[in-house]
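Please check this chain.
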Amino acid sequence: PEFFSGGAKLLGLPGHQGKITPAQIESCLKGFVRGEHDPKPCGVSITNATELGTVYTPAEVEKISSLIKPRGLRLHMDGARFANAVASLGVSPAALTWKSGVDLMSFGGTKNGAMMLESVVFFDLDLAQDFAYRRMRAGQLMSKGRYLGAQMLAYLEDGLWLKNASKANGLARLLGDGMKGLPGLRLHVPVEANEVFAIMPEAWLEQLQGAGVGCNRWMAAGVGEGEVLVRFVLSFATPQDSIARLLTILSRVA
């Protein structure tokens, strides 16, 4: 953010299950008491679906918007996994964005089947002033990205973006449900999108990776001694029989 904005600060907030609340935001805003010695708050950014695979509902988004708008702040949504959030909730894209008070969204397709496909959607066109210049400065000139950008037509046509996301979400739920009965393993957060986060003995991770399972160690609070948080990511292209094979390996390790 500092590179693309020319020096703006991004202050992270810890959130329960990856989501921040109006109370946390309000508490943070009260800490800006030193005038020019503090950054000047101008907006809030939320990620939907979150980095932990949880999802903000329209009501949760609206509560954040209602808090910050009277203070002159804008609301941005990081939508790298936006399709998974929409598919999970079964609501319209509009209900989850501008109707809930989102001013602009970075809309991504890269994590849902596309190749380097990202776009910026302005719901408040006043915010688009000078955006062409910012895009040029960042090396994202439209003429240089038209072949990548052409994917957006196929991505949105006939609801392909939601079909991909729904399949990935369903596979994640299948994996999460299969993990629930395994002794020594517990889910870190509910499975709401296409990611599964499981807490298990650290020795299990080495055995899983040794068996060729593609998963990652993840950082989190609340993990006990000798345990590790492991992230599994599902996509529309994940074969369903891979879930069965993974659960078989997990059962053997358990």
Summary: The mean pLDDT is 92.
